[in-house]
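Would you be willing to look carefully at the protein I have copied below?

:::
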Amino acid sequence: MSSEPGRRVVVTGATGHVGTSLVRLLSEDPEVGAVLGLARRLPDWSPPKTDWAAVDLSTERPHPVKEFEGAAAVVHLAWTLRPTHDPAVTWRTNVLGSIRVFQAVAAAGVPTLVHGSSVGAYSPGPKGHTADESWPTHGWPGAAYCREKAYLERVLDTFEREHPEIRVVRMRPAFLVRREPARAPRRTHGVRLRPGAPQPRPDLLPFLPEVRGLRVQVLHPDDAAEAYRLAVHRQVHGAYNLAADPPVDSELLSAMFGARPVRLPRTAARTAVAAAWGLRLLPASPQLFDAVLRLPLMDCTRAHTELGWYPRHTATEVLEEFLLGLRRDEETEAEPESAWWRTAG
């Protein structure tokens, strides 16, 4: 681990789920001298050693070279999942904006770039066993999120060849689960709920749908942030899978909910997702649902051995925290803290 005093780290997307956790960790890190958080809107929160700058990567403004100058590392987390009905908008922010970030890193002479990729970059893969970082990253072509993450993997392939002096790390976290603050619209699993509408009661569900292939991994944003912090300091490069155990499937959820699993055909589940998405009740598109059914389960051995990273929260604990939040919102009848299933980024 580097012992360079006063290292300056820049974080894009610093007010997002992982960004917020990472800024907090870096502000408490004695090896970091200063943190600069970049976001579209500046937050009220001001942790130690941290400054903020307003940067909107969706615009054709100049590359953020000035913000990156003198930085020891740039951690690129800026990403938007909306509007899912207009992929041209997300492409402009996520892909073109990311390319501007990469170009600015090179122009400013930043020695380390840590990029927030995702499990969504992977090609369809196994569900019965895990795949390591060598698994192809061509994404699922039907889903905009996967196309964008996979495209940036190819961009970074070229970037690394053209800039061998820059240490590039690609983080590929599983789905992130976190409760959001009460200021956000009331949502549960991405579904809009009217103010005053009753919260879901997991303990009252008689059964859960079981869809073939619906076996995924999740991760707490705090654990993802710790992996990014380690990557800033350790002289590592390449890709790292990040996920918590155990994988989430109908068996695990049925045990948590005390509900009986009932087999639901893929076509019926997809039809329901497509209908909810078409009505703008669900932010996840049916194409992303197709991708989720095909994503591989990730092997995280490399992160364990090279980064020394292990998640503090199990997948079960992450989901229990989520469900506890729903129950507390219902019991207090206060404006709820909404929760999201989030893809990485």
User: Anything to note?
Assistant: DSSP finds ten helices and 16 strands in the chain.
